[in-house]
Write a structure and sequence with these properties.
InterPro entries: Entericidin (IPR012556). The chain is mainly α and 47 residues long. Helix content is 96%, strand content 0%.
Length: 47
């Protein structure tokens, strides 16, 4: 019974870790897109 509980906790921790990675990755992409938009706006203002 203890092994089953340990296995379930391990699976739950792994699932939480993977979902956190996806969240951080998505946030990084959003920040990157914002940076590109600012760069493009600055380039257009120079012209």
């Amino acid at each position: 019974m203890a092994r089953l509980i340990a296995l379930l906790l391990f699976v739950a921790a792994g699932t939480a870790t993977l979902s956190a990675c996806n969240t951080v990755s998505g946030a990084g992409q959003d920040i990157s897109a914002g940076g590109h938009a600012i760069t493009n706006s600055a380039d257009k203002a120079k012209e």
